[in-house]
Amino acid sequence: MSTVYLLTGSNLGHSAAYLAEAASQIEQKLGKIVRRSSLYETEPWGNTNQPAFLNQVLVLETEFEPEPLMRLLLEVETNMGRKRTEKYGPRTIDIDQLFYENKVYNSDILVLPHPQIQNRRFVLVPLQEVAPQLIHPLLHKTITELLDTCTDYSSVQKKLLL
Predict the structure, then answer these.
(1) For residue range 92-146, what is the model confidence (pLDDT) as tens digits?
(2) 3-class secondary structure for the chain?
(3) What CATH number does the domain located at 2-159 have?
(4) Distance between CA atoms of residues 153 and 151, nearest Å
(5) Which of 15, 24, 81, 123 is the most buried (most CB within 10 A)?
(6) Residues with a known catalytic role
């Protein structure tokens, strides 16, 4: 089994329900979720003219290799109504592989580790909650160190759901 760190996000409709459904489908089809961050309300990144996002990091134990896993994650997105019409646009669900063990990987559909981790607070804050000492295999810094030096100051707030 391999340990994979995923980031889920949504900013359309009932985002918390979309994140829960994505986690459920991931667990049914791809492996066991062994850890989940809190939900975080985050400012949109790249295209700021859209609603805030809800984001969550999932730690998945899986038997799938990185590229087949990515293809299956894309299927989950499609099954949940994801339409890719605008780069950095609003979405019902987005699922990114952040890390797959300590692998460095590059293909047409997947780059590992995700190339923007160190530049995005909406990734680093929930990732730090579940894996503060995880070491980035290319930058050789922990998630806590990356967060401490991140120059993205966008709002990332832990969300309490009733």
Answers:
(1) 899 999 999 999 999 999 999 999 999 999 999 999 999 999 999 999 999 999 9
(2) CEEEEEEEEECCCCHHHHHHHHHHHHHHHCCEEEEECCEEEECCCCCCCCCCEEEEEEEEEECCCHHHHHHHHHHHHHHCCCCCCCCCCCCCCEEEEEEECCCCEECCCCEECCCCHHHCHHHHHHHHHHCCCCECCCCCCEHHHHHHHCCCCCCEEEECCC
(3) 3.30.70.560
(4) 6
(5) 123
(6) 82, 91, 94, 96
Chain position carrying tokens 């984001």: 55
Q: Where are the domains of the chain?
A: 2-159
Q: Can you read off the two tokens belonging to residue 22? A: 């994505």
* Cα gap 39→52, rounded to integer Å: 12
